[in-house]
Amino acid sequence: xxxxxxxxxxxxxxxxxxxxxxxxxxxxxxxxxxxxxxxxxxxxxxxxxxxxxxxxxxxxxxxxxxxxxxxxxxxxxxxxxxxxxxxxxxxxxxxxxxxxxxxxxxxxxxxxxxxxxxxxxxxxxxxxxxxxxxxxxxxxxxxxxxxxxxxxxxxxxxxxxxxxxxxxxxxxxxxxxxxxxxxxxxxxxxxxxxxxxxxxxxxxxxxxxxxxxxxxxxxxxxxxxxxxxxxxxxxxxxxxxxxxxxxxxxxxxxxxxxxxxxxxxxxxxxxxxxxxxxxxxxxxxxxxxxxxxxxxxxxxxxxxxxxxxxxxxxxxxxxxxxxxxxxxxxxxxxxxxxxxxxxxxxxxxxxxxxxxxxxxxxxxxxx
Length: 367
Description:
By secondary structure, this protein is an alpha/beta fold. Helices cover 49% and strands 14% of the residues.
């Protein structure tokens, strides 16, 4: 009886002890494998947001990749792409201009100095230019993010430039069910746990990638693809190939417009109206900018639904409207324009394209 009392707990419960050793070993191997086998994370600066779906982590220096180019990226204290990790005062000491849009505004594939916001910041030092743009944003997220910055962060700025993209109506359908949630909620905990496991568990990473791949065959998922994995992504149930094609064609294909574009544009209109009213409340001058994708340039498409809708929206709301379609669609041959201003095989602007956009916007910023 006395000898039994002297036994250690693992001697009394050998099966449990053996199970714990095996599980611990698997977890250790899984953790070590993650560090060796999971590819470098080029989206480590991206994160979900309970206030505006997704954004960039504040004060982060990271490597980003676009196509075959790897480059350095910095974010400031507000989680905006910037020249360095720096503190942004909430109240400016000079005129402050805020840009917001999607991947074109974030300037995918470009460093800060190569991006049109960075070029304008360098050439117009009397202005403070901030870039709140993030890949896959659309009017709902423009509105939610600006409202968060004004009401929660108490950020103050004088002008807001909103870059409306051709993909916005389709993204509006993707985000239509997104609602603000608490940072202390179960949903936020689940997303943070999901993000951690996706980066530190090779088993979880492998299973998640297979699920994402399988799901993409039948449904559309958000294409900003943060490292936090599938749980962060919202879905709009439809055929992916048709839905992706609609991103381009909805604005000049009546069939595609009726199928997706019309309902997406109605959502975009509603959220832009909310943003317009918010800017009026805070006495912020609002400017709306539209620009063509390469298919519009090829088709010499100067007047589509995208153009006419936002031109009329701005007219009714007495908002300054900048139409860059004619800047890219003119007497120059379309292939020459695309070769000069766009990343090869991509719809986004290259370094020269970003500089060209900056030159088009400079006169408006100087007013």
